[in-house]
Amino acid sequence: MQEDENLEDPSGEEAVEPNRGICECLCIPVHWFKMLSRELHWSFVFGVVVVYGISQGLGGALSTVGTKYYMKDVQMVQPSEAQVYAGITSIPWIVKPLWGLLTDVLPILGYRRRPYFVFAGFIGVISMLLLSLHKSLHLVLAILSLTAGSAGVAIADVTIDACIAHNSISHPSLAPDMQSLCAFSSSVGALIGFSISGIFVHFIGPMGVFGLLTIPAGLVFLVGFVLNEPHIPNFAYRQVNQKFIDAGKSMWTTLKSEDVWRPCLYMYLSFALSLNIYEGMFYWYTDSKDGPSFSQESVGFMYSIGSLGSLLGAILYQYALKDYAFRDLLFWTQLFYGLSGMLDLILVLRWNLKFGVPDFFFVIIVESVAQMTYRLKWMPMLVLSSKLCPSGIEGTFFALLMSIDNAGLLSSSWGGGFLLHILKIKRTRFDNLWLATLIRNVLRITPLCLLFLVPRADPNSSILPSESLSSKEELENSEPENIELVSLVNSVDGK
């Protein structure tokens, strides 16, 4: 009997240990969020979740699917035209330095950030209401409304990015964690958004989806009221012109440094050379003759699984890859990103059917791998960009770096549209889609030859040159209260 009891006790302990391990794993994200809220203030974390998770993630997913069907079924445009129009609506993201410069040097009613969130939410609500309520909106007005909605998201993005860049300087050890928070929020929001996007497009149509997008814009409006930042009384608006000049000089001093312009050039070329032909792929996905003829629900579910791959990429970066040197990590992520495009070629050529793999199952694999590799490629670039920002104009300079990336994405979109046009890929003609996919895949590999432009530094080291650091000090001395987010707990630097 005693031997039996001795055997039972260890078994009971073994049953408890796994449960304890599971609970500890589940508590890790909770403790992580609490740590970020304690060190960086809860309103900052809330702003990141709203802007990246709800506005860009959830809202971006609904907007992506809704806009694709809006252009295809309501406006009846060709895939090459839809590709070009998608580039036009992204133009507000290229002029992000303007929004960043305004938030850095031109406070409104004594606040640098909060009014810009309010403005971003306002134009987002108005533009989405116009698209949802006007049944026969002219194509030009529709594009203008989509561009205005994109501008609202871009202004909110650059405003929260300025807070992130500032906190990356004051809390350098938390810079990768902040980018992981952005990626996690964006991926979860996109996962939810794409999961429900096809259902909403099916039942309420793309115009109804635009009506739902007023909710994310309204939450951005709310961020402008709850964000915790110091009030700047009696701001000298007469000095705004001089501040613009000083900011421009500081930006130029930093940008002309070899340690800065070289990675900027790489980031632009790495995006520009990866031609975007997603509109052609979408038209083929939904074609009943040559394509798989996916339903609206299937398209939404397909993109949602891709968002899950993006989330896995963010988790993989946070827990396994965030401390690797930029050049080494970008080599492998760019290589895998290029190779993942070959899965699209297999799908377009229908080789998957020869191996007995259904289209829907295979396209889920394609989207998951593509989004995961794209996220792994994107995140070290974001961390690298935050490391290149001088204090005092971090919002402007980070926006400049992001606008360079977005200029690359615009070049990619228009280049892809031109490729679809010259290969004569139409609404119901996809004979050369395989060739467009092959050309895109080859160009995705070419940035590997440009990796010498990226520094060998790791995320924990300083990259800014000494002249930028000196201008940093000048700006900080001239504007000691610059864009400070109040923390609940004193930072390590304050000890």
Automatic annotation (TrEMBL):
Bilayer topology annotation: Multi-pass membrane protein
Primary location class: membrane
InterPro entries: BT1, FBT, MFS_trans_sf
Keywords assigned: Membrane, Transmembrane, Transmembrane helix, Transport
Transmembrane segments: 42-62, 82-102, 114-133, 139-160, 181-203, 209-228, 265-286, 298-317, 329-349, 355-376, 397-421
Short name of one Pfam family: BT1
GO cellular component: membrane
Gene3D superfamilies in the cross-refs: MFS general substrate transporter like domains
Localisation per UniProt entry: Membrane
Sequence similarity: Belongs to the major facilitator superfamily. Folate-biopterin transporter (TC 2.A.71) family.
Name recorded for this polypeptide: Folate-biopterin transporter 2
Species of origin: Acacia crassicarpa (northern wattle)
Highest classification ranks of the organism: Eukaryota, Viridiplantae, Streptophyta, Embryophyta, Tracheophyta
